[in-house]
TrEMBL record:
Keywords linked to the UniProt accession: Calcium, Glycolysis, Magnesium, Metal-binding, Mitochondrion, Oxidoreductase, Thiamine pyrophosphate, Transit peptide
Species the sequence originates in: Sinocyclocheilus grahami
Protein name according to UniProt: 2-oxoglutarate dehydrogenase-like, mitochondrial
Main location: mitochondrion
Cofactor(s) listed: thiamine diphosphate; Mg(2+)
Catalytic activity of the protein: N(6)-[(R)-lipoyl]-L-lysyl-[protein] + 2-oxoglutarate + H(+) = N(6)-[(R)-S(8)-succinyldihydrolipoyl]-L-lysyl-[protein] + CO2
UniProt similarity note: Belongs to the alpha-ketoglutarate dehydrogenase family.
CDD domains recorded: TPP_E1_OGDC_like
Length: 926
């Protein structure tokens, strides 16, 4: 509020602000005394004018400190920067005589005692304070080494809770025992970095120097959360300080950490690449402060710094789900961030927006920002537009606690409050640890090139351990000798070992098999009947949906299934076996193409809905189907984390259109494709990506199969040699399975083992009458078909066949229709490649040898520089080098599809004509 506010406005505001409360002591602003007594004497009451001015001033001054006090808090340990990027001090935070004078108050009024309002806690047990002391206590609460942002929260109870935590006098004090514990934790944090710096001075380690307080901060959060009943904490963080967190928070064995510096460490031992500061850890131990068991998980993370955020949230949600922890009392998450990444990475925003969605909430995450005040070499003023790096958290009304990282006790208190907030309100909270980076981006970097003044100050900066030790020694909490003993004891713990045997790979899985996926016909029929009905009574459904349900019932009666019903049966059969199924993504409840309808909505009663699949069996597993926020990156990361938690769950993420997986590419590249190789972390997530050239334009046609195939690790130039079952060995040896099913039955069967699975799902085939499957293709004894050979006249006399067209997905039906029109069923065979990767070398070889006199064609609807051709061509040559395989399809292009329907149909006719023009290839040499 402006200090030029009119006197009339001040009087009116203060009178409204100080209205009495029924049943409580009420202050009469006309007198400086409590009402209810006889007519007060002049000696007992100050002049009404001074009192009115005091309340006008106090309302403004208190509000300004609550809203803007953090702007002048002493947050930077170096004393050279302002955490909010602005060194200007707002005039309404200045408490000079001139400021008081604008309210009609004089210097002599500073020593007068005034009644405190009920909305403040600065008085503690006192109801009156001198004006000078009021000013001091407000500044102590909001302008010291902590800065609190909370007044944007639109909840009075929550705001009052925070006021009490920061305004109550003496509330930030610690016992001598707590101080000694803090000191010991600082010693462990600091000495760990010292040892690494001495032992491996030329190695990158992304140490924690400049923010050593992070270790005791995390331990305080874990202690307080454990005290409140939390049993499992799942953490995600970037690489700075990861080794220290692994050693001193998660308690990974030091020999395991140090041995990762061994230059002879092979990728097969514990993942590939720079595993030291990217690898995760899972450990169950006793929390010594609470004597309770606690499980700590630190998730593996790539250098895409914030990519792990939704993954942590998904794993946390899964653990809560499997433990029946519906309120997040037993499982919680902690996310650590860098300041530049927190402000700059969009996935942070996406993750925050999942925080209170019913199917994604983890009931509060504690975010700890290690605010280096620099991003690699980039000054904060060039890295963000917001005053603080943490401003993104305001969108979900998360309180933000800024704190000077060189004040360990202030940090501990803020962490304690954050843990209590999360336990009380089950909402996110942010701790902004304003610190510095003692070395460069890594230990080999020279920061003086770009931040010379900052690093001149850093070189002079006294270490936080020494400052805090000196403080406790001066207070008599510890002696110098005790401190030195503590330092030496931890130093003696750090020893280097030889390479431990348990790092060696376990070898092949003990059991390698593909379980049967066919079902008893009674089960098929039962699930189909439930899928065709509404389990709830008096439930009004849409008339159009009634027709869909009748259509399902008709298919069941005829022992056939379309795509949606086959999916329904697949999910339902897993639920019968106690396997949890989760389907997530944009509009998945109904399905983008209005084919699924797994959630029925009452047309008469608002918010009444039914999920028939949860009414299949008495003791079935739960089916979770949930429309997500309009996010791919964040939601796919979330589902990936969920899938990590249980090997016995089916977790599917569906893109609205396959094209939209583009914005989740980081999760696909870093976690799904390479996660097992990098971090030895197996997964089993399923990506459902609608794909197909149908004239819908470049944004709604291609799921970019070429990208997935390029990242598949099978060797195109080597025919695999397996001693056991070829199919099984291939599946266990791949980084993911890529399929493009052409029948509902094959879609039903498709997941024989726990592996990442990429499915290019159809659009027009969802309703194509020819794209239906009989019960006979799904009953007991049936299985997924990696290829579907030609079953028509051409297969009866393969030696007479002149051409074999290999294809995948929807284009088969267009080819089959054209072949029939041209009456070429005996001359041309069409073979469908259902599993594209791992490439079915054995089955393709059999087909090529079967049609030994035929020309081989690969036909795809995608452009030549996209789709599957570049992947399958060298593998066909490996199968049979004497038989070249020719390409038929669209010409190379920059965009994946045309947006013009006429052009689309012309392209389709052109490549269909080419596919069946036998004369076109005569005389051509490979």
């Amino acid at each position: 509020m402006s200090q030029l506010r009119s006197l009339a406005g001040a009087l009116r505001s203060s009178s409204q602000w100080m209205r009495g409360h029924v049943g409580r002591r009420v202050f009469d602003p006309r007198r400086n005394c409590s009402s209810g007594a006889a007519e007060p004497s002049l000696a007992a009451c100050s002049s009404s004018y001074v009192v009115e001015m005091y309340y006008a001033w106090l309302e403004d001054h208190k509000n300004v400190h609550e809203v803007r006090g953090h702007h002048v808090a002493r947050l930077d340990p170096l004393g050279i920067l302002t955490a909010d990027l602005d060194s200007f001090v707002p005039s309404d935070l200045i408490t000079s005589i001139d400021k008081l004078g604008s309210y009609g108050l004089e210097e002599s009024d500073l020593d007068k005692s005034f009644q405190l309002p009920l909305t403040t806690f600065i008085g503690g047990n006192e109801s009156t304070l001198p004006l000078r002391e009021i000013i001091h206590r407000l500044e102590t609460s909001y302008c010291g080494h902590t800065g609190v942002e909370f007044m944007f929260i639109n909840n009075m109870e929550q705001c009052q809770w925070i006021r009490q935590k920061f305004e109550t006098p003496g509330i930030m004090t610690f016992s001598d025992r707590e101080k000694r514990t803090l000191l010991a934790r600082l010693v462990r944090s600091t000495r760990f970095e010292d040892f690494l710096a001495r032992k491996w001075s030329s190695e990158k380690r992304f140490g924690l120097e400049g923010c050593e307080v992070l270790i005791p901060a995390l331990k305080m959060i874990i202690d307080k959360s454990s005290e409140a009943g939390v049993e499992s904490v799942i953490m995600g963080m970037p690489h700075r300080g990861r080794l220290n967190v692994l050693a001193n928070v998660v308690r990974k064995d030091l020999d395991q950490i140090f041995c990762q510096f061994d230059p002879k460490l092979e990728a097969a031992d514990e993942g590939s690449g720079d595993v030291k500061y990217h690898l995760g850890m899972y450990h169950e131990r006793i929390n010594r402060e609470t004597d309770k068991n606690i499980t700590l998980s630190l998730m593996a993370n790539p250098s895409h710094l914030e990519a792990v955020d939704p993954v942590v949230q998904g794993k946390t949600k899964a653990e809560q789900f499997y433990r029946g922890d519906t309120e997040g009392r037993r499982v919680m998450s902690i996310l650590m961030h860098g300041d530049a990444a927190f402000a700059g990475q969009g996935v942070v925003y996406e993750t925050f927006h999942l925080s209170e969605l019913p199917s994604y909430t983890t009931h509060g995450t504690i975010h700890v920002v290690v605010n280096n005040q620099i991003g690699f070499t980039t000054d904060p003023r060039m890295a963000r537009s917001s005053p603080y790096p943490t401003d993104v958290a305001r969108v979900v009304n998360a309180p933000i606690f800024h704190v000077n990282a060189d004040d360990p006790e202030a940090v501990m208190y803020v962490c304690k409050v954050a843990a209590e907030w999360r336990n009380t309100f089950n909402k996110d909270v942010v701790i902004d640890l304003v610190c510095y980076r003692r070395f460069g981006h890594n230990e080999m970097d020279e920061p003086m090139f770009t931040q010379p003044l900052m690093y001149k100050q850093i070189r002079k900066q006294e270490h936080v351990l020494k400052k805090y030790a000196d403080k406790l020694i001066s207070e008599g909490v510890v002696t110098l000798q005790e401190f030195e003993v503590c330092v030496s004891l931890y130093g003696n713990l750090i020893t280097v070992c030889c390479f431990p045997d348990f790092f060696k790979p376990d070898g092949e899985p003990k059991s390698m098999s593909c379980p049967s996926t066919g079902l008893n016909e009674e089960v098929l029929r039962h699930i189909g009947e439930v899928a065709s009905s509404v389990p709830l009574k008096d439930f009004a459904i849409h008339s159009g949906l009634s027709r869909i349900l009748r259509g399902r019932a008709d298919m069941v009666a005829k022992r056939t299934m379309d795509w949606a019903l086959a999916e329904y049966v697949a999910f339902g059969s897993l639920l019968k076996d106690g396997i949890h199924v989760r389907l997530s993504g944009q509009d998945v409840e109904r399905g983008t193409f209005s084919h699924r309808h797994h959630v029925l909505h009452d047309q008469e009663v608002d918010k009444r809905f039914c999920i028939p699949m949860n009414h299949l069996w008495l003791n079935q597993a739960l089916y979770t189907v949930c429309n997500s926020s309009l996010s791919e990156y964040g939601v796919l990361g979330f589902e990936l984390g969920f899938a990590m938690a249980s090997p016995n769950a089916l977790v599917c993420w569906e893109a609205q259109f396959g094209d939209f997986q583009n914005t989740a590419q980081c999760i696909i590249d870093q976690f799904i494709s390479a996660g097992q190789a990098k971090w030895v972390r197996h997964n089993g997530i399923v990506l459902l990506l609608p794909h197909g050239m149908e004239g819908m334009g470049p944004e709604h046609s291609s799921a970019r199969p070429e990208r997935f195939l390029q990242m598949s690790k099978d060797d195109p130039d080597r025919y695999p040699e397996f001693t056991g079952d070829f199919e099984v060995q291939q599946l266990y040896d791949c980084n993911w399975i890529v399929v493009n099913c052409s029948t509902p039955a094959n879609y039903f069967h498709v997941k024989p083992v726990r592996s990442n699975l990429i499915i290019f799902t159809p659009k027009s085939l969802l309703r194509l009458p020819e794209a239906r499957s009989s019960f006979d293709e799904m009953i007991t004894g049936t299985k997924f078909l990696r290829i579907i050979p030609d079953g028509g006249p051409a297969s009866k006399h393969p030696e007479k066949v002149k051409r074999v067209i290999f294809c995948t997905g929807k284009v088969y039906y267009e080819l089959a229709k054209e072949r029939k029109r041209l009456k070429l069923e005996e001359d041309v065979a069409i073979v469908r490649l259902e599993q594209i990767s791992p490439f079915p070398f054995d089955l393709i070889k059999a087909e090529v040898e079967k049609y030994s006199n035929a020309e081989l064609i690969w036909c795809q609807e995608e452009h030549k520089n996209m789709g599957y051709y570049d992947y399958i061509r060298p593998r066909f040559l490996t199968v049979h080098s004497k038989n070249p395989i020719w390409y038929v399809g669209r010409d190379p292009a920059a965009a994946p599809a045309t947006g013009n329907k006429f052009t689309h149909l012309a392209e389709l006719k052109r490549f269909l004509d080419t596919a069946f023009n036998l004369e076109a290839f005569k005389g051509r040499s490979f």
